[in-house]
Amino acid sequence: xxxxxxxxxxxxxxxxxxxxxxxxxxxxxxxxxxxxxxxxxxxxxxxxxxxxxxxxxxxxxxxxxxxxxxxxxxxxxxxxxxxxxxxxxxxxxxxxxxxxxxxxxxxxxxxxxxxxxxxxxxxxxxxxxxxxxxxxxxxxxxxxxxxxxxxxxxxxxxxxxxxxxxxxxxxxxxxxxxxxxxxxxxxxxxxxxxxxxxxxxxxxxxxxxxxxxxxxxxxxxxxxxxxxxxxxxxxxxxxxxxxxxxxxxxxxxxxxxxxxxxxxxx
Amino acid sequence: xxxxxxxxxxxxxxxxxxxxxxxxxxxxxxxxxxxxxxxxxxxxxxxxxxxxxxxxxxxxxxxxxxxxxxxxxxxxxxxxxxxxxxxxxxxxxxxxxxxxxxxxxxxxxxxxxxxxxxxxxxxxxxxxxxxxxxxxxxxxxxxxxxxxxxxxxxxxxxxxxxxxxxxxxxxxxxxxxxxxxxxxxxxxxxxxxxxxxxxxxxxxxxxxxxxxxxxxxxxxxxxxxxxxxxxxxxxxxxxxxxxxxxxxxxxxxxxxxxxxxxxxxxxxxxxxxxxxxxxxxxxxxxxxxxxxxxxxxxxxxxxxxxxxxxxxxxxxxxxxxxxxxxxxxxxxxxxx
Lengths: 266, 336
Known about the structure:
- The complex is a heterodimer.
- Chain A is an all-alpha fold.
- Helix content of chain A is 70%, strand content 0%.
- Chain A has one domain.
- Chain A has helices spanning 14-27, 30-59, 65-85, 88-96, 99-103, 110-139, 150-172, 181-194, 217-228, 238-264.
- In chain A, helix 3 (65-85) packs across helix 9 (217-228).
- The radius of gyration of chain A is 20 Å and the shape is globular.
- Chain A starts with 13 loop residues before the first helix and ends with a helix.
- Chain B has helices at residues 13-20, 72-79, 97-105, 123-132, 138-151, 167-177, 197-212, 224-230, 248-255, 270-279, 298-307, 322-330, and strands at 27-36, 46-56, 61-65, 87-92, 108-111, 185-189, 216-221, 233-238, 241-246, 259-265, 283-286, 291-295, 312-319.
- In chain B, the strands form 3 sheets. A 6-stranded mixed sheet of chain B has the order 5-6-7-3-8-9, with helices on both faces. Chain B has a 4-stranded antiparallel sheet with strand order 11-12-10-13, with helices on both faces. In chain B, strands 2-1-4 form a 3-stranded antiparallel sheet, covered by helices on one side.
- In chain B, helix 6 runs parallel beside helix 7 (197-212).
- Chain B starts with 12 loop residues before the first helix and ends in a 6-residue tail after the last helix.
- The interface between A and B is large, with 34 and 48 residues.
């Protein structure tokens, strides 16, 4: 047995240490998640874009339905992936397997854990978004070179939704065994996906309730997404949409930090 | 440098060097208090630790004994800088957990009550990833992990997923993981609870190995034999307070007689038997199934009881243990 002095030359980068841990965990399912990142968009584009597109294109309104929903599908997937990554796996690290209690026994604190998770979710959605974008290109659902900006947009949206979901997960830790996630998926993620102008314009909503979409991060992202994809021109609201998404991400991060701390420092 | 002469004998230089630093105690606390905020539905805060004093020398193996709910784990969590203290002063390795938590944690090893390993990762990955949290570079982390595989006797399992290991193996891995940063003080919260006797003894050997290297150990336990076997010094906690302190032998000498006789009296004879014992001037402890009497000469006491004509189903004379000290002080068994 050889001597291994480790006390010297230590430089602690707590966030990166945790991100690296999450990457090692991800490595176990990397290929299946990557393949899924390609298969899901293909199925959606065939089923919705091509299938339903046959009907709607007949009704008309300019532009193909595939092109209309393309960017929106990518962004909806980002919301889906971000909330999923930030739910059960994180809950397990709090409660079932308690890796977080092991990590907080080291110089790494709850804040670094929260930051690292937001960062990881952003990375994860960026990669899924990139795969989606490639499929969109292949289907001809996007053309404009600027459409590649959908990838960072997905990461920003993912970080925002991920941050709030992480906070929600920490909130759930001492409230049952994760049953609360049903609320997140059924009553938040699903309605967001359906009613954020992804599959049909929000102008079809009655005027009186149209303001509700202002609360939907996905709607703001869709508005910018269509701009990036060359389907719309910058309007007076563009910077507001962007500001909303930035505020969402920042707020989510701060809220996640706060709840992680409350949960991990007793 | 003083440490170099021993370097060939002792595999962990960092530990050796650190334990030579005998400036101050490794843990000292005065009036240390922990109150948890009231849970929903009740208004009172829970006082888990009610003003305890501790003075733990460096390199010493120190025990905190007590039953469940005595405040052992809360005390450990405060020392581990995982839980802020409510009141009192606390210094760990010369630093204050309130302001230097991360710096202290960098020099501690923590073995929690329940294993919190990453079950989906391999033994080796668990060690390497944990080392990274201490800022240990990749190459050094892998070397350290490799060394710890030997310490934990897990070399053949290096690339097995942790969820395939037995309970005893997981425990050894948790302890090995707590050593990745060459800690100066290792905190072990009930290290052997839930292990079979064989794994328990294997683990004691490992702890003995660490002691031999001069690593300070602070452990909680409710096993008296464990405390007697391992600890240089200990405190007994009860209901959030320290009720006794000292080294195991002194505590026994101070609180109980050298021998203890356990009587199981025949049906109907128990009341009379206990009266006889008290009349003979012995301290008596009544448990639900047997009666303990403290004596300097157990055999002589047994003879006297026989002479008094009290029938007993069984009589057992043994040396007094810490369990008896605990019984004397708190009036009840530790596992009750």
